[in-house]
Design brief:
single chain; alpha+beta; Multidrug-efflux Transporter 1 Regulator Bmrr, Chain A; eight-stranded antiparallel sheet
Length: about 300
């Protein structure tokens, strides 16, 4: 990931020139515009992020939090939906449609097409309709209200050692995280050398398909006889932008949306490709989900 400071409204690389709006669009809305405007060109996660004026990790988090979609999964699903419409309209050359959709062969296109729609391109072309297909329309991510986050404080953390329960998540399976916490707390007291601190949630940077590792963990003084099924995680020293989430824990994505769209860009700092830390407040009640958290957003070092 680039260490340079990026600015909202930066040149949109190969994706349609300059994106310029006043006030700036939310990141997810801007990304959808870029994807729809350039559906026939080579789209990549780093390229879309550059066009939005943010880092790759920033875009992946902002888009997933706002839509529940990984960026590139949405790109592929939209392209296949446009391909299905073209075939139903009578496109004769399936390979040409495949190439326009970003696939290098008829076979790869057919596999992806069947995975999404349960039918082959030939079936759709001969049927001349998209009725019954799981067509993905353009996302409407215009917010009815713009979430708000107060300006953060910047804090430095030294090396953190965490032992925890890891699971692979995506932006549409975050509802399963509370059950993960319940499983972790059942073994929490068996972890040696744990510090007398409230457990932490650790979110690793999302991959190209929007998958990320989420860890329910506790800080430890050292790694020692870690119980089976748990992982050891070392987080390097760095600065963090620390944001408060004061509402119910189920509304945490509202705060994240405000962070990605407004509050973090306003600091002029760049999101690092490093774990995000969620720390529950002393007042947090796991029975009700009330009491608040702080969200520790990793920052690239300043020059």
């Amino acid at each position: 990931m680039s260490r340079r400071t990026v600015k909202r409204g930066a040149p949109a690389c190969c994706y349609g020139g300059r994106v310029s709006t006043k006030p700036p669009l939310p990141i997810a809305e801007q990304a959808v515009w870029i994807i729809e405007r350039n559906s026939g060109t080579a789209l990549t996660l780093p390229g879309i992020a550059e066009a939005c004026g943010v880092s790759r990790a920033h875009l992946a988090n902002a888009f997933g939090a706002a839509t529940g979609w990984p960026v590139m999964k949405y790109v592929r699903s939209r392209r296949l939906s446009l391909a299905a419409a073209a075939l139903a309209a009578g496109a004769r050359d399936i390979l040409a449609v495949a190439l326009d959709s970003g696939y290098g062969s008829h076979e790869a296109f057919t596999r992806a097409f069947r995975d999404q729609f349960g039918r082959t391109p030939e079936d759709v072309r001969s049927g001349a309709t998209v009725d019954g297909l799981a067509i993905v329309p353009p996302l409407d991510v215009r917010p009815t209200t713009r979430p708000h986050a107060d300006p953060p404080r910047v804090a430095h953390e030294d090396t953190l050692r965490v032992v925890g329960l890891a699971d692979t998540r995506s932006f549409d399976t975050t509802i399963e995280i509370p059950a993960q916490w319940q499983r972790f707390m059942a073994v929490h007291d068996t972890i040696p050398a744990r510090l007398d601190r409230i457990p932490v949630g650790i979110t690793q940077a999302a991959d190209e398909d929007g998958g990320f590792s989420y860890v329910c963990g506790v800080e430890v003084a050292r790694f020692e006889r870690t119980p089976p099924g748990l992982i050891e995680l070392t987080i390097a020293p760095r600065d963090y932008a620390v944001f408060d989430h004061r509402g119910h824990v189920s509304r945490i994505f509202d705060t994240y949306a405000a962070i990605w769209n407004d509050a973090l860009p306003a600091t002029g700092r760049v999101l690092a490709d490093a774990p995000i830390i969620e720390r529950h407040n002393e007042t947090f009640d796991p029975r009700t989900g009330e009491g608040g958290l702080t969200l520790w957003i990793p920052l690239e070092a300043t020059r």
